[in-house]
Amino acid sequence: MNYKSPNRANPFALLPFIIFIAIYLGAGIYFQLQGTAMAFYQFPSVTAMFIAVISAFCLSRDPIMYKFGIFARGAGNDNIMTMLMIYILAGAFSAVAAAMGGRDATVNLGISLIPPQFLTAGIFLISAFMGTATGTSMGTVAAIIPIAAGIAEKSGIPAPLLLGACVGGAMFGDNLSMISDTTIAATRTQGCELKDKFRVNFLIALPAALCTVALFMVLGNPGTAVPAAGDYTFLKVLPYMAVLLLALAGLNVFLVLVTGIFLAGIIGIGEGTLTIITMAQQIWTGFTSMNEAFFLALFCGGISEMISYYGGIAWLIEKLQKSIRNTKSAQVGIAVLVSLVDCATANNTVAIIVSGDVAKKISTKYRVDPRKSASLLDIFSCVFQGILPYGAQLLTAAALASQSGLTINTLDIVPHMWYCFFLAIFGLISIFIPYSDRVIRKHPWKWEDKEERGVRSEE
Fold first, then answer.
1. Which of 139, 181, 221, 403 qualifies as a FRET site for 367, CA 20 to 30 Å off?
2. DSSP assignment string, 288-306
3. Structural domain of residue 54, as residue ranges?
4. pLDDT at 349
5. What's the rounded Cα separation, in Å, for the pair 175 and 177?
6. How many CA atoms lie within 13 A of 92 on its CB side?
7. Rounded to the nearest 5°, which phi and psi values hold at 178?
8. Residue among 360, 324, 339 at smallest CA distance from 427
9. b or e along 429-444 (b: 16 or more beta carbons within 10 Å of the residue's beta carbon)?
10. Burial degree of 55 (CB within 10 A; 0-12, 13-18, 19+)
11. Is the pLDDT reported for residue 455 higher than 50?
């Protein structure tokens, strides 16, 4: 069936996400004020999202199966299915590796090698390096979170702080890596080179990362004395090392996680901590432990498609374009546009693709250098992707931490996403005080040379 959008702006199409946020946050705040333990767990996030799904089906008078087709197209999107597979494979790897003793061994190794005052900053730097090298924040979160959760249990450092360090480092890599899908989407939509966008983006991301590391050095010290590292054998650490090295080598994230699952299982069987049956049971346990993140991502993908189809995104774009007056406001408009679209879609790559064409028209009309507009698209999509309680990265982090025995909600992690907050601050500063535009000033964009590509001024 051909699902052709009505192609009209409609603010009411944004209601499903507003309803979800109102129910989920509202219930959590209510129970928090009542002094209820685990306040944000009282009303399940998946139930709140299910209510939002029902509201999305009320957006039009189209036949219900027609609307379900739109929902299914979004839920079955390549990006959504990729995330779902990463969820369950990450859960399985974490469960099997923990069952054979790998998580404890890795934690003991880390505590023995890294000075206590550097543990939180070290987690951030390791995640940042891996995220930049691999270009995938999801793969980085899946590999590092189980280790960070284990360190939190033994070190006295608040678990949300360590998880925030891990996800923040992953978002650093997602934003800056030249092989990240967000970088590729941003440069392709704006018509500039990867290396040129990197140079502009780096001068914004680096001070944000340095401020984050400094803050972790001050506030990330263990709350109690770190216990002496327990015994460990390198063989049990091997699955985690293999996952890190294979990811850094550029192997597909699915192959990385599958390799980690079976390597951990084989080692466990060889050492007698697992049997074939218990390994199979742990894989299933890992799959089912990710059910909250799985269903939220599935529902979110479907709702996002319905919001876009019925004009919610078009309305956001229309309103923002009316408020742009000059080059600086054009840059702010691009940043706000991609941020709002990311809040509506909970997928930074999709947000860039959806916003890219409009951002290109804005940058051309108001003479915003494409290297800067590409950087702004990538930066602010990653900022909001990193702090969305229903975003894939925080959902995965919370699910893996819970699997490790910690009681963590995505909202517990958000206040500790310091890298994302600093990145937003320096991103805005770079608009009004263009300190990051050295490359742009050295090599000005020659607009007249781009006419053959159709990138000419609309003035």
1. 181
2. HHTHHHHHHHHHHHHHHHH
3. 11-59
4. 82
5. 6
6. 23
7. -80, -5
8. 339
9. ebbeebebbebbeeee
10. middle
11. no
CB crowding 58-95: b at 16 or more within 10 Å, else e: ebbebeeeebeebbebbbebebbebbbebbbbbbbbbb
Q: Which of 190, 227, 259, 202 is nearest to 116 (CA)?
A: 227
- Please give the tally of structural domains in the chain: 1
Give domain status of residue 27, yes or no.
yes
Could you report the per-residue pLDDT of 133-173, keeping only the tens digit for each? 667 788 788 888 888 888 887 777 888 999 999 999 999 98
Residue 433: which region, alpha, beta or left (left: phi > 0; alpha: psi -120 to 50)? beta
What gap in Å lies between CA 265 and CA 263, rounded to an integer?
5
**What distance lies between CA 52 and its chain's CA centroid?**
22
Q: Which residue has the higher pLDDT, 397 or 289?
A: 397
What is the DSSP-derived secondary structure letter of residue 116?
G
d(CA 336, CA 339) in angstroms, rounded, equals 5
Give whole-number Cα distances, 368 to 330, 362, 375, in Å.
Answer: 7, 8, 11
Residue 78: which H helix or E strand, with range?
A: helix 78-99
Which amino acid, residue 302? G
Terminal C-alpha separation, the chain: 40
Residue 98 falls within a domain, yes or no? no
User: Is 298 a residue whose pLDDT tops 60?
Assistant: yes
According to DSSP, residue 38 is labeled T
Beta strands in 368-451 (DSSP E): none
pLDDT at 451: 40
Separation CA 455–CA 448 (nearest Å): 9
Return the DSSP state at 77. -
- Cα–Cα distance for residue pair 159/164, rounded to 1 Å: 8
Q: Is the distance from CB of 316 to CB of 358 less than 8 angstroms?
A: no
pTM of structure: 0.76
> 300, 242, 239: which is closest to 87 by C-alpha?
300
Closest among 132, 123, 126 to 180, alpha carbons compared? 132
In a domain, 217, yes or no: no
